[in-house]
Specification:
The chain is of the alpha/beta class. It is elongated and about 60 Å long.
Length: 188
């Protein structure tokens, strides 16, 4: 069985450039997605994890592209190593392979993962602070509503009639969570 070099690229938004991440690295199969790294429930990441096999090497530009918190990073690498898959982080120049227990690499890996998690927390904190300042100045109006008032009324009518939330979400082109948010707002 031929081993493969599997790449994973993640950017948060379509506007971001993902081309630089694994540029110049020979990859047999690439998985690319536009999603937040806040958790590991991402379609392309899950597809890549199902795809990799024993003997493969999984390439990621940097740890924060794989996950944004230490627990997720450590778990993903450990699970792939347990399956016989090596994980290579290009930016950090770190390779984690099966049966290679290097305590210095493990320490560095944990520290870098912690910094990625800390960076995400700082970004969220600055975002919250910016929103608060904008609210005080009266320039923050919040997120644009998913539905106009007529659509919202129709949605609430459907909820009242007992139409399943999944069907309503599809009908209005919104997520089920948004349906629940509208339902919650109508109660209060």
């Amino acid at each position: 069985m031929k081993t493969q070099r599997v790449g994973y690229i993640r950017v948060s938004t379509i506007e971001q450039n993902q081309q630089r991440q694994l540029e110049g690295i020979e990859i047999d199969r690439m998985f690319t997605e536009y999603a937040s790294g806040k958790d590991t429930n991402r379609p392309e990441l899950q597809a890549a994890l199902r795809y990799v096999r024993e003997g493969d090497t999984f390439f990621v530009h940097s740890m924060d592209r794989l996950a944004r918190n230490v627990e997720d990073i450590l778990r993903l690498v450990r699970e792939m190593n347990e399956r016989g898959v090596a994980v290579q982080f290009i930016k950090e120049n770190m390779l984690f392979s099966v049966g290679k227990d290097d305590p210095r690499s493990a320490l560095m890996f944990t520290m870098l993962g912690a910094f990625a998690q800390f960076e995400r927390a700082l970004i969220k904190e600055r975002q919250r602070e910016g929103i608060e300042l904008a609210k005080k100045r009266g320039v923050y109006t919040g997120r644009k509503r998913a539905l106009d008032p007529i659509q919202a009324e129709e949605l609430l009518k459907g909820i009242g009639e007992g139409t399943p939330k999944t069907i309503l979400a599809k009908r209005f082109g919104i997520s089920r969570e948004t349906v629940y948010q509208y339902a919650k707002q109508s109660i209060t």
